[in-house]
Amino acid sequence: MLEMFLFIIGVYTFVFGRVSLPWNLSIDGWRARIAALFLMAPFPILFLLGRVIGRGVQDNTALSFYGIMELIIVILGVLGAVLFAYLTKPKSDETRNEAKNN
Question: Which pLDDT does position 15 carry in this prediction?
Answer without folding.
Answer: 92
